[in-house]
């Protein structure tokens, strides 16, 4: 049953007229409180509300135009806000009229108070005149007592004056428009204090804008500005002080920037030979140690060649590791795009191209597997040219080198091309100063503790330096190169493994060397606060987005998951891949995630949240295993991303309700109707399609319209009770609890079957 406008207004806690106004602004034709609202109407209303939301740092002027106000610049846009800001002027006019009425009422109250005061004064004067006529006996004058009584009388008069002043009416003041500085996020109650209004007023305005919130909730900058403008003030977007940026500005390097080694990322489709190419360069066999023959982690290695040093970053090619590839592109100078000559461009190839272009880095193409039959380098060049990567020999600026990573053919030329590209880029960095860079990978080792792979981008990092990496801080205990050698210090473009952090940083986090622990904790606390703020805003957006979606719709099935992995980058990639599995029927909720083995606390959390536990290249300890077995908590181990995703898909499918499908078994036509003292009304029928089964549900159709659904009370063939009558045979049927069978009616026999849904 559809909701009416009046019922929907109650759900949203707004008036019928306000809801009708918003629906008309959304292009809907509802005009009465009794009009019905369909799910399509709700979706149109939602889209209208979301579409009318102004971008950050914008303010809504009374004229209906958008004005972006900041400390440095103001930009105007003449397009009006169509959803909820176009009625601001009307609301202000109404508020002005209300203010005038209040002022008139208070003036009348003041006049009445003055009249009452005059009457009281007249009574006092009359009483004094009466008491003067009464003669009092003379008494001895005491100066001390006179002074004391005079002081007391003065105090009484002063107290009375103040008391009367406290209760006097004040003339209402006119509304004063102020400039309200709004930060990137703000609590609802704090916003009310800035405008000198109660928090409830802000909450009410948020509700009118379609944003359900409490006084303790945090709202984003653009929403806060809309509320400020709705009340009548001017919202000014301000940027909060960035602790990290301020710290970065304080770092001084004593030397002039000089040349550094290029950082090269190897990207491409799965199984196109990225790791094999890197293995040949490094003279190792890393690919043999990867589960499923695909790279599961980001690896960073510094390679010494005859032409100079190159730092390589190897990225996974599987689709689930899109976020890892994106991070690789954002930390590199040059991308080697590996394309198999016998396979051509694939989905991850295109994705790698887009990541490289978005990061603004140079691209060198390695056309691999030239030793295989069917290899066609020219076809690959043509396909890449269609993607705006034009080869040099075709008049473009992209170096494309045919290679065989397995045999080593063309690899030297590829390295020369990379170093030539680096010369053209004139890569430079400062060496004399505190180190800065990015976390490439991280993991929790049972014996070593927190282990992080860092890429130094500026300055020099030494053993004993205090660093802040993401939300982790610590003093560096050891620095290990990709070859396994211990280093005392490393400079720009070095990819090293460090120990000493108090926790595991996230892959992609920025790190920097700091002077003291106080400075490190200040940076980390700032990052934690910003992360909490971001999560709160995300949760708020999700709850608002689900508010309208939930009306008239069944709730999505949710699979709660706890993920533990061996390294941070893999954890990030798996979470991204699992979130992509969501559809209209089911979704995944990541209850918790982290790096390291599965512990007792993880199992207890799974028990409390009804979650499953997935371990990727990690295992549970004995205590955790025991609890999981006792409480029947699903605990699954995986080492290949394909298998993990398939496992989750199967579990999500198991949550879905089965699909009920109906199958018509047979149809009988009523020829005559009889009355039986034993069975009541009996229909004499001819089976015209299929067969009639006594144990199946039936429908009665009249003029091809269903008028009754139930079950058979009896099925007879001549005088015998039967369970089935086939096509072309006559039979008698009695329908349970139905006594309106007529000739020419049709009785349809059907069956219901359940089919499992899949993701």
Give your account of this protein's structure.
By secondary structure, the protein is an alpha+beta fold. It has six domains: 1-50; 179-237; 259-428, 3-Layer(aba) Sandwich (Rossmann fold); 436-526, Beta Barrel (Elongation Factor Tu (Ef-tu), domain 3); 554-655, Rossmann fold (3-Layer(aba) Sandwich); 659-755, Elongation Factor Tu (Ef-tu), domain 3. It has 19 helices and 38 strands. The strands form ten sheets. The protein has a six-stranded mixed sheet with strand order 12-13-11-14-15-16, sandwiched between helices. Helix 6 packs across helix 7 (199-208), helix 11 packs parallel to helix 12 and helix 17 (600-609) packs parallel to helix 18. The longest helix has 45 residues, at 88-132. Mean pLDDT is 77; it is low at 53-86, 133-141, 160-169, 284-290, 292-296, 317-321 and 547-553.
CATH class descriptor of the largest domain: Alpha Beta
| Count, helices | 19
The quaternary state of the protein chains shown equals: single chain
Considering DSSP H and I runs of 4 or more, what fraction of the residues is helical? Answer: 25-40%
Report the end-to-end length measured between terminal Cα atoms. Answer: 29 Å
Residue stretches low in confidence (pLDDT < 50, at least 5 long) are: 53-86, 133-141, 160-169, 284-290, 292-296, 317-321, 547-553
- Corresponding CATH architecture of the largest domain: 3-Layer(aba) Sandwich
Shape designation: flat
Annotated CATH homologous superfamily of the largest domain: P-loop containing nucleotide triphosphate hydrolases
Would you give the CATH topology of the largest domain?
Rossmann fold
* Biggest sheet, spatial arrangement of strands: 12-13-11-14-15-16
Question: Compute the gyration radius: what is it?
Answer: 39 Å
Largest sheet: 6 strands, mixed
Beta-strand residue percentage: 25-35%
Give the class from helix and strand content and strand pairing: alpha+beta
Overall pLDDT level: 77
Structure summary, number of beta strands: 38
Taken together, the total number of domains comes to 6
């Amino acid at each position: 049953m559809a909701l009416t406008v009046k019922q929907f207004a109650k759900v949203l806690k707004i008036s019928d007229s306000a809801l009708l106004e918003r629906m008309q602004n959304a292009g809907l034709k509802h005009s009465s409180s009794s009009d019905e609202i369909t799910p399509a109407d709700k979706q149109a209303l939602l889209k209208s509300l979301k579409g009318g939301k102004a971008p950050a740092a914008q303010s809504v002027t009374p004229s209906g135009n958008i004005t972006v106000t900041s400390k440095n610049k103001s930009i105007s846009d003449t397009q009006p806000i169509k959803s909820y800001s176009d009625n601001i002027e009307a609301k202000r006019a109404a508020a002005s009229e209300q203010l005038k009425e209040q002022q008139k009422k208070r003036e009348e109250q003041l006049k009445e108070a003055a009249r009452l005061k005059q009457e009281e004064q007249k009574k006092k004067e009359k009483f004094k005149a009466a008491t003067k006529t009464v003669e009092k006996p003379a008494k001895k004058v005491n100066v001390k007592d006179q002074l004391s009584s005079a002081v007391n009388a003065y105090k009484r008069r002063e107290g009375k004056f103040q008391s009367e002043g406290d209760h006097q009416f004040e003339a209402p003041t006119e509304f004063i428009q102020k400039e309200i500085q709004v930060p990137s996020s703000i609590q609802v109650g704090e916003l009310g204090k800035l405008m000198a209004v109660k928090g409830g007023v802000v909450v009410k305005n948020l509700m009118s804008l379609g944003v359900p919130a409490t006084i303790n909730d945090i709202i984003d900058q653009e929403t806060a500005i809309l509320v400020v403008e709705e009340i009548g003030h001017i919202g000014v977007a301000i940027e909060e002080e960035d602790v990290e940026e301020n710290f970065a500005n304080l770092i001084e390097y004593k030397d002039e920037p000089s040349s550094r080694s290029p950082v090269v990322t190897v990207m491409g489709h799965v199984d196109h030979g990225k790791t094999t190419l890197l293995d040949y360069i490094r003279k190792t066999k890393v690919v043999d140690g990867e589960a499923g023959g695909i790279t599961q982690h980001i690896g960073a290695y510094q390679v010494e060649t005859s032409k100079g040093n190159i730092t390589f970053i190897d990225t996974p090619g599987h689709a689930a590791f899109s976020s890892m590839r994106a991070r690789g592109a954002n930390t590199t100078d040059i991308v080697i795009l590996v394309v198999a000559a016998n396979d051509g461009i694939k989905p991850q190839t295109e994705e790698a191209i887009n990541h490289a272009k978005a990061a603004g880095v140079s691209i060198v193409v390695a056309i691999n597997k030239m030793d295989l039959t069917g290899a066609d380098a020219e076809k690959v060049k043509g396909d890449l040219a269609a993607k705006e990567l034009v080869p040099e020999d075709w008049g473009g600026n992209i170096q494309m080198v045919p290679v065989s990573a397995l045999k080593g053919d063309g690899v030297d030329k590829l390295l020369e091309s990379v170093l030539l590209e680096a010369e053209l880029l004139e890569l430079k960095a400062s060496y004399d100063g505190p180190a800065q860079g990015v976390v490439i990978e991280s993991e929790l080792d049972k014996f070593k503790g927190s282990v992080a792979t860092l890429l130094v981008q500026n300055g020099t990092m030494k053993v004993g330096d205090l660093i802040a990496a993401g939300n982790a801080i610590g003093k560096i205990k050891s620095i290990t190169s990709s070859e396994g050698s211990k280093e005392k210090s490393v400079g720009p473009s070095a990819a090293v493994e460090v120990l000493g952090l108090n926790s595991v940083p996230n892959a992609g986090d920025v790190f920097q060397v700091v002077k003291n622990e106080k400075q490190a904790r200040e940076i980390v606390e700032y990052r934690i606060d910003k992360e909490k703020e971001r999560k709160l805003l995300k949760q708020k957006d999700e709850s608002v987005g689900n508010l309208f979606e939930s009306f008239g719709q069944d709730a999505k099935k949710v699979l709660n998951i706890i993920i533990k992995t061996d390294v941070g980058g893999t954890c990030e990639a798996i979470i991204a891949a699992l979130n992509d599995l969501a559809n209209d029927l089911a979704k995944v909720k990541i209850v918790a995630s982290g790096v390291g083995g599965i512990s007792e606390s993880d199992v207890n959390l799974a028990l409390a949240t009804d979650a499953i536990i997935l371990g990727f290249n990690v295992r549970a300890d004995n205590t955790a295993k025991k609890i999981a077995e006792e409480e029947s908590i699903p605990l699954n181990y995986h080492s290949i991303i394909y298998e993990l995703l398939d496992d989750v898909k199967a579990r999500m499918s198991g949550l879905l309700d089965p699909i009920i499908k109906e199958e018509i078994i047979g149809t009988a036509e009523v020829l005559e109707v009889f009355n039986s003292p034993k069975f009541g009304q009996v229909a004499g029928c001819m089976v015209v399609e299929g067969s009639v089964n006594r144990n199946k549900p039936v429908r009665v159709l009249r003029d091809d319209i269903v008028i009754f659904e139930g079950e058979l009370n009896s099925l007879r063939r001549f005088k015998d009770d039967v369970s089935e009558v086939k096509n072309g045979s006559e039979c008698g049927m009695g329908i349970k609890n139905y006594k309106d069978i007529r000739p020419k009616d049709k009785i349809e026999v059907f069956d219901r079957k359940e089919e499992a849904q899949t993701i």
